[in-house]
């Protein structure tokens, strides 16, 4: 879809949803088609603690950390992501005159893919197999449904979980789901906003921001510079650029006008070819 | 829309969501267009207790009881209705091959209407004014959006809250929202299923089921026979029949095939004219 931007907003502490929605409203008023995708991890942790089912995280042998999602965790996850945060964002946009419409990946099978029946996790240096988790990945995006809604003037606000072939809700990574969505919708630009200014060469020193990364540099930077959640954002960027996305922007969502700032060059720009070549 | 049925499922104890979804899947496979609307009150009470914000209810001077919805209650309400129950139903339908799509009334402004800035409540026989509640009623249904989704083959699963003119989420009665939806969509049949067999002349004796009520009898039955939540269901029936709906069925959702049973005459039938005339 021409001019479409896919924006992913993280769910960590410090993210200013009012600033995000104000910025979205400005872009929507200019007629810019936009899909918003969000997380909700820190609020999920709080609610899970309050409900007596504290969050657990696992690290895969390849070094990625993810939420251990048993059935009860999935229910709490859906309460917070689909109920609390999704509707908060939709309401903030509606208050600003944007006809937002919130959906999870299971609604209309927007995001579908296989469930991992078992995952491998490192524990004290040893790998163990964990079963009965509700996690997976997005292989297919229902772009017809998203196009139907965009064409009718709605702004889709999307959130995990996704859905498996057997119709089970599965926890998927939001950054990678955003990349799959951008690719499926033919968006040229993907924004991934979180609570850091972008990729930092020397984490957590914000002055060490890397302003530009070429596609072929992603691997080496992911291994040396990128910590924690940033590694998976770089993986998402790689997946987006492997499709028809030409620019991935990693920006800061703790400030005013976070989308416009990222679009005008703040943060880290990851692109297909050497800039200016 | 031709042949469309609007089905409202309550959120009280005892309701069998698997039986409801199995029945919906059967009707959907026959090509019957259907909109499902649900509640979530008993689970909301449990989660509100667990999160340390216990539910409160108020009774209006005209005798209707409703949830006192401050901002924190609204957030918990959205977590349970839009996150927990809505996604549970969508997942149960997807597992049965139905392409369900869950939305709240704030999404795409499906249900909009005025927020009551203050409500009158009876307390120990005295009326008092309560402000800062997020409640209201549905005046307008976005039937274009629902028709767009139905025409594209999706089964809409709807839940409160609705949205005010100012873009605030407001708690609305689900039965009355279902009635407004049936009227706006030109449905001839509205089903309201809960955890009783229908209207009981002598509550809670289930053998006192009233099998048939004519439109002009609703008022007197509401005053004599109907207890608690049933009064508002009769009000919803009245509002539906005042539109183009010809049959309202009040049935039991604690059994197998609850929708099919209600359609074949179990429960209470409320209709416009004397049956058979």
Describe the structure in your own words:
2 copies of one chain form a homodimer. In chain A, 51% of the residues are buried. Chain A is of the alpha/beta class and 277 residues long. Chain A is built from 8 helices and 16 strands. The two termini of chain A are 26 Å apart. Chain A is globular, with a radius of gyration of 18 Å. Chain A binds chain B through residues 47, 50-52, 75, 78-84, 86-88, 90-91, 94-97, 99-104, 106-109, 144-145, 148, 152, 154, 161, 163, 166-169, and chain B through 47, 50-52, 75, 78-84, 86-88, 90-91, 94-97, 99-104, 106-109, 144-145, 148, 152, 154, 161, 163, 166-169.
What is the averaged pLDDT score of chain A?
A: 94
Give the helix level of chain A as a range of percent. Answer: 25-40%
Q: Sheet bearing the most strands of chain A, described?
A: 8 strands, mixed
Number of DSSP E strands of chain A: 16
Estimate what percentage of residues of chain A fall within beta strands. 25-35%
Low-confidence stretches of chain A: none
Rounded radius of gyration of chain A (Å): 18 Å
**Widest sheet, order of strands of chain A:** 5-10-2-1-13-15-16-14
- The number of helices of chain A is 8
Oligomer: homodimer
H and E string of chain A: EHEHEEHEEEEEHEEEHEEHHEHE
């Amino acid at each position: 879809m021409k001019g479409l931007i896919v924006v992913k907003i993280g769910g960590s502490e410090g993210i200013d949803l009012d600033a995000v929605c104000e910025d979205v409203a400005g872009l929507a008023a200019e007629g810019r088609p936009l899909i918003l995708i969000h997380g909700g991890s820190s609020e999920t942790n709080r609610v899970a603690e309050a409900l007596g089912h504290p969050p657990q995280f696992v690290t895969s042998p390849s070094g990625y950390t993810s939420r251990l999602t048993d059935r009860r965790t999935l229910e709490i996850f859906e309460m917070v992501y689909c109920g609390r945060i999704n509707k908060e964002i939709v309401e903030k946009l509606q208050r600003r005159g944007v006809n937002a419409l919130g959906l999870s990946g299971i609604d209309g099978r927007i995001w579908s893919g296989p469930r991992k029946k078992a995952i491998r996790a490192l524990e004290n240096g040893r790998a163990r197999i964990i079963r009965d988790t509700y996690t997976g990945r997005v292989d297919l995006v229902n772009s017809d449904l998203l196009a139907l809604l965009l064409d009718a003037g709605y702004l889709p606000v999307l959130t995990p979980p996704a859905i498996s072939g057997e119709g089970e809700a599965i926890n998927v990574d939001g950054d990678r789901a955003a990349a799959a969505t951008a690719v499926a919708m033919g968006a040229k630009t993907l924004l991934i906003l979180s609570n850091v200014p972008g990729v930092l060469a020397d984490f957590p020193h914000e002055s060490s921001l890397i302003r530009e990364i070429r596609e072929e540099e992603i691997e080496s930077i992911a291994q040396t510079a990128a910590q924690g959640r940033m590694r998976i954002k770089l993986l998402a960027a790689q997946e987006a650029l492997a499709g028809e996305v030409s620019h991935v922007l990693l920006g800061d969502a703790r400030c005013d006008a976070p989308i416009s700032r990222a679009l005008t060059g703040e943060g880290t720009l990851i692109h297909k070819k050497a800039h200016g070549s």
